[in-house]
Amino acid sequence: MRKNSIRVMGIESSCDETSVSVVEKKGNSFNVLSNIVKSQTDIHKLYGGVVPELAARAHSDVIHNLIQMALKQAQVSFRGINAIAATAGPGLLGGLLVGVVAGKTLAHFLKKPFIAINHLEGHALSIKLERDISYPYLLLLVSGGHTEFTIIKNFNSYQRLGTTIDDALGEAFDKTARMLNLGYPGGPQIESYAKKGNKDRFILPMPLINEKTSHFSFAGLKSAVAKIVNEHRCTEKFKRDMSASFQKTINKIIYTKTKNAISEYKKILKKNKDIKIVVAGGVAANKSIRQTLKQLEEEIDCEFLFPSIKYCTDNGAMIALAGIERFERKKFNKLDFKPRPRWPLDKKAKFLKGKRIIEG
Ligand code: KG4
Ligand code: ZN
To answer: SS3 of 123, please?
Structure first.
């Protein structure tokens, strides 16, 4: 192992991607030596969504191969690794168990530290894989399981501003796509159908839009789509127009809520300049959403940063990176650490799923 460099293996298995990566930190820069990702889309698309039991089995089928592949591609042996980090939550328990047990077993036999990583911390820090960024910054995380604004004040110091009270944004895309028979995952399909449709054909509701908070709700929007789908024949033209109307509605919601979140961020941090917003998670791949957010840069003095798509979607590299940050601070975990299906980044944040919010 070279001196003044740290190498950590990161294992990710919280949802429907199994991923193993080796990341090295040398001086102040991170190098992704390997990042092997095996997606389970082919399995889950038959059901239109992730089936937890099938996900867990599929992780356990491939995890050992991915560990070997990650070492081989990184051209390192286990001796060259300082610690093993694994996602320990939040996520689907069966999948988390596979990654955590693999990580603990390696750590035990190799006599190296085991580090339990919060998946959301991985997303929050993933931008550092590609660029040097100083704290604080605002995170907008939009994926199949999460939709939230969180202030990344410093390492291990996180304050959640807004979240969804029902569905995650990726879930709203996937459910709408399912109603339109567009296949799974639905986000990319809706995005491409939307390009050819009439965005003004259907007027859809924007729940919580007039509340001056950065909380989201997508359940009412989903029900409105279901009602219109029931009243129409599902022709190609209908699919295109509905996709375009849905995308336009989502853009408006994201635009308004991000503006609200930036105002909250400025107020809390008493900071008006150098506002950076990192947008991560699978939905951040949506170009129409990216363009909408970029428009905000012209209105407010702020900068949006998007990690590359491979680091936006679930990946082991962001877990290894969070592992390095913890390794440097000697934040190790015992081998009896239990996976946590629910594990908020901000411990003080209220759990709002299913709650009606009346504020502002
Ligand atoms: O981060 P991710 O890969 O997995 C987790 O959920 O953690 O995100 C997957 C989600 C799915 O709901 C998928 O439909 C959505 O991201 N997604 C998109 C696009 N690409 C992926 N949503 C909208 N537009 C896209 N281009
Ligand atoms: Zn994720």
So the answer is: helix
